[in-house]
Each structure stands twice: as C-alpha cells, then as structure tokens.
Amino acid sequence: MADPNILLEARELARHYDVSRGWFGPKATVKALNGVSFTLQAGRTLAVVGESGCGKSTLARQLTLIEPPSSGSLLIEGVDAASADTATLKRLRQRVQMVFQNPFASLNPRKSIAATLDEPLLINTRLSAAERMERIEAFAAKVGLRAEHLRRYPHMFSGGQRQRVAIARAMILSPSIVVADEPVSALDVSIQAQILNLFMDLQQEFGTGYVFISHNLSVVEHVADDLMVMYLGSAVEMGDKRRIYARPLHPYTQALMSATPAIRPADRRSRIKIQGELPSPLNPPSGCAFHKRCPLAKAVCAEAAPLLRIVDGRQVACHALDGP
Question: Residues 30-40: pLDDT tens digits?
Fold first, then answer.
C-alpha cells in the first residue's frame, strides 16, 4: 500500500532532447535529466541545487507536467503521470503548481490581480462568481495583499508584491505540491526573507510539499528539509539538509558549500576552487561527469559512472569514498 505521506516520487526520471549539429551534421542527444530518483513528503521541502546547466529547470518542467519524461516514472499522489491519460493528467496538474523566478514575466500585464487569481478557479472548479471572489480575497489576505490591491495591475506593484500574487495564484487551488523555481533570486535581499517566511507559513498551514530549486545555498539552508545536489543531469549527493551542510561528502558539494558566504568566522569554510568549465551536455565526459574538474579524481572515475549509495546517512555518488 502506498504511503499517504509521500506526495511525489520520481523513479529514474530522465529527459533527453535530440538536437541538430548543423544542416548536414548528425543529430545528437542532450541528456538534460539523466535518471533522477527521489521522494517528496507532505509538509517537507526538497531543495535542488547546482550550477547553471545541471538540469534543475528541466526537472521543474517534468514535475509540473509541462513536458513528458523520456523514460522513468513520476508518481503524483500514487498515480504515474508518465503513463496517465488526458483526464488524469488534467486532474494531476491541479495538484502540482509552480512559482516562477520572475514574477513580472509570469503575470499577465493586461489582467488585474483579481482576474489573475480567478483564472485557475474559473478553469478548474465549478464555484460560483461569489464563491470564487470569496476564495480570492481569502488567499490574497493570506499572502499579505489587501482587498483594494485586487483591482490593480502587475505594473503597479513592487517585485515582492508581485511574487506574493504569484504565490497566491499557485496556492489558490490548494495543491499538494508546489515547485518553486528560483522564487526569490529576482528580488531585493531585504524582501527575500519575507517571501521565504511566507512560503514556510503557508506550508505549515496547508501541509504542502515544496520542491525548491535554487543556486543560493544560503537561502536553501533557511527553507529546506532535504537537499539534492545535481551535476550535469544527475544527482551526486542527496539526503537530510542538516547532515549535508554539517559534513558534505561529494567533492562537488564541498566546493559549492565552500563558496557560500558566511557572516560568522566559525561558519566559514576553506575555499575549494573548481577548475575548468561545466562540460557540454552534448559531449559529456566518460565515467563520472565531474572527474575532469574533481581534485580527488582517480583512474576509475574516467571509466565508470559512480552509483548513488548510502554513506553517513545520505546518498552519494563518488568513487573517492571507496578509498585509495
């Protein structure tokens, strides 16, 4: 019997794209997401981190059912979305909502805030106009917007207020899962904490599961329960946030953590510089994708891709942990 606390489960989820190498060149395959597995529980936040090009946004498109996976399965509340019919997909899409990075770009400038919040209710529910407005006003209040704000348009708000509107739109259908793709990176630092606290307050009230995608490890430390570090389409370290922050094991995780600013001297880590550039997904290295940039690389790293295994209470994919 399926665990009712598990809202989402990805099993070897992959997304590949066929791209052309010029007019006469052979087609190549970009493995943007290459066999990722994890679970998300109710009321918890899974943070996904990694540098640009690691597959974070591709994963977000899979989880929100914008694109179908190339292989693997995605179970949402126990239903496999990868093999679901149209009617089931429509129902599942109501259970997974998204908050985008840029709130100005994600809101229709020609629609008032009331119309923006009314649209998902109009499409997905049979509520009357009065019932919809009652729900709109209730959720606007939950995110810190007043009744008079509903008559205004996106350009009349600050970035933080627009993101509050975007959060209200995502939450108004009472989804079980919210995917937040860099939701505070476009905001002033002074506003980021307010938006993060709003996310956490809503999670506590509704028990929503969050997939929080970010490159900012300081933000992730504040909001996450679990952490998944990705590199070139694959997970390299995954587990409890506190355990990973206290003692990162994968060399890539160690380098990311060392680059995170810290105010207190006791929290600062020795800087680990990663050499070279992120490899092209069109031509990834053999074996471990990180081995050409890794200070701990061994001969086996160029020959065989490491598999995730349990080490010190988390999953890590690294040959260097096997000893000399």
Answer: 889 999 999 99
CA distance 147 to 158: 17
Structure tokens at 44: 């918890």
- Nearest CA-CA partner of 241 in 256, 252, 228: 228
Q: Which residues of 304-323 are buried (b: 16+ CB within 10 A; e: fewer)?
A: ebbebeebeebbbbbbbeee
- pLDDT digit string, tens, across residues 257-312: 887 766 556 566 677 777 777 888 888 889 999 999 998 889 999 999 999 999 99
Region of 121 on the Ramachandran plot (φ > 0 left; ψ -120 to 50 alpha; else beta): alpha
Angle at CA of residue 14, ends 9 and 17, nearest 5°: 150
0.85 surpassed by pTM? yes
Both tokens assigned to 59: 């994963």
Rg of the chain over Cα atoms, rounded to whole angstroms, equals 21
DSSP string across 250-318: SHHHHHHHHTS--SSGGG-----PPPS-PPPTTSPPSSSTTTTT-TT--GGGGTSPPPPEEETTEEE--
The closest of 304, 300, 192, 313 to 243, measured between CA atoms, is 313
